[in-house]
From TrEMBL:
UniProt signal peptide: 1-21
Domain of life of the organism encoding this protein: Bacteria
Keywords per UniProt: Signal
Name assigned to this protein: DUF6268 family outer membrane beta-barrel protein
């Protein structure tokens, strides 16, 4: 053996002999007390369904209604008056901001603004004060609300909305007193059997019919297996059948009801102790085409027939049943024109 190899072997044997033998100690313990069994981890359903379409965050829209007749009933010595409305224009803003977005709760703040202008024929001589205030002041509606989606588990949820609105023949330059704020609310208990369907039943305090009312609510959302068809229903507010042409083109057919009670400030009569409020409610039978410009910016075009459900005036704010035959302060009649609406939407895909 080569001397160098003998030396290397001797050094190796020395190191091996000199190294202390490693003692095999007891197995290291692990604390399992902080682990949660899989069956105890609670899962929650989400507030959206598959292929349900983008969620609106901010939209701005412009609405035009065509020519129609408008008849105002007699009030405080002013006789009935019939005129022709050339058009009604509306500008609207709808915003939704998620302040809390967790698996176990979602909270959104909503803001809605609707400004309505009435344009009459050039030869119309306005005598009735109701027609005059519509011409000079128009109608304004602003509302703030909170929407809470609280999943209870994978299959059940609560949906709660509460808000306040200020409606009347006022402008932003001459605001209406906050003492005439109107409050609305709704609560729904729902079921979500799978990722493509959710539905619920509830109760609402609403002005959708023009006057204050308490109505049952039915909520239903559905998307087909292939994602091409969908249903979006919130009765009595809206119902739409949707056809998805890919992820960026949606056609909807259906209807919606919008309404509120508007304080007519120009018609207040302190001597007679009268506080007229316009019960405005309308049904819109419509078709809507939504198209994506980018992933977050959408273009929306809708059109159809606007049917006037209620346009009468009451004295003050109070509950009026749909089956009530109590007389109004004065009654008005509107024609039912066609309408078109164009809007841009910023969405969450």
């Amino acid at each position: 053996m080569v001397p160098g190899k003998h030396l290397a072997l001797a050094i190796l044997l020395f190191i091996t002999a000199a190294a202390p033998a490693q003692e095999e100690g007891p197995e290291e313990e692990f604390d399992f007390s902080n682990l949660v069994p899989a069956e105890d981890i609670k899962a929650f359903c989400s507030p959206r369904i598959l292929n349900g379409g983008p969620q609106n965050l901010f939209s701005i829209g412009y609405d035009v209604q065509g020519t129609h007749d408008l008849a105002a009933g007699g009030y405080q010595g002013f006789p009935d008056q019939d005129i022709e409305v050339n058009r009604i224009r509306e500008f609207r803003i709808d915003a939704q901001y998620p302040v809390i977005s967790k698996n176990n709760i979602t909270v959104n703040l909503q803001f809605n603004y609707l400004r309505t202008w009435f344009a009459y024929g050039e030869d119309e001589l306005l005598v009735h004060p109701f027609l005059q205030t519509l011409d000079e002041n128009g109608l304004t509606s602003m509302s703030f609300s909170t929407v809470v989606f609280k999943p209870l588990d994978l299959d059940n949820f609560l949906l709660v909305q509460a808000g306040a609105s200020l409606n009347g023949d006022y402008t932003l330059g001459e605001m209406q007193s906050l003492s005439h704020t109107r409050f609305f609310a709704a609560v729904i208990y729902g079921w979500k059997p799978n990722d493509r369907k959710m539905w619920g039943l509830g109760l609402s305090r609403t002005y959708i019919g023009g006057s204050l009312n308490y109505l049952p609510v039915f909520y239903y959302q559905y998307s087909s297996v292939d994602g091409q068809w969908g249903v979006d229903v919130l009765l009595p507010s809206r119902a739409d059948l949707k056809r998805n042409f890919g992820r960026k083109n949606i056609l909807s057919l259906g209807w919606n009801v919008q309404g509120n009670s508007y304080r007519l400030n120009a018609l207040q009569d302190e001597e007679a102790n009268l506080e007229p409020e316009l019960r405005r409610s309308e049904l819109r039978i419509r078709a809507i085409y939504d198209r994506a410009i980018t992933n977050t910016l959408w273009f929306s075009l809708q059109g159809g027939l606007r049917y006037s459900w209620d346009f009468n005036a009451d004295d003050g704010d109070f509950f009026r049943s749909f089956f009530s035959d109590d007389p109004y302060l004065f009654e008005n009649e509107q024609g039912n024109p066609l309408f078109a609406q164009l809007s841009l939407r910023w969405v969450s895909p």
